[in-house]
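haha ok so turns out i had the wrong file open the whole time. this is the CORRECT one, sorry everyone. sequence first:
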Amino acid sequence: MEIKCQLKLLVIEETSSLMVSIAVLITMVKIFKASDIEEIHKKGYTAKYVADVEFRKSLDTGGFILVTVNAGTKSEPHAHGELEEIFVVLSDMKMKIDSIEYELNKGDVVLVSPNEIHSFEAAADSPASMIAIKFPNLKADRVSSKNQ
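then structure:
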């Protein structure tokens, strides 16, 4: 399992002639690399337990979406105000989360928290695909962002 964090600091401190500001914003994405997981041989099949996640709150709904990014294209950067997403990568691709770009391979699992700006990119010569699992299943929770 690989966890990447981005930390931005802004300090607020007041003195007689100087005001310094500090604010803390922590952005966290979790990436579970299938290549790091040992394969378990079962009767008639093999399995990899790629991700074990805890949900931040109890869930009533979830949405499962098959996503395809055409060869040589990128999706528009966006975030979601409330929902979390799990992406199960079905082919090699790039994913940008906040300002960090990740190389992903088939079988990797990515957990994106609310307000994390993310986008997807396919290689020039082949489309990319993944399954997006949204929870809760809020269909109007997308927040556009041109900052990526």
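The chain is about 0% helix and 55% strand.
again sry for the mixup
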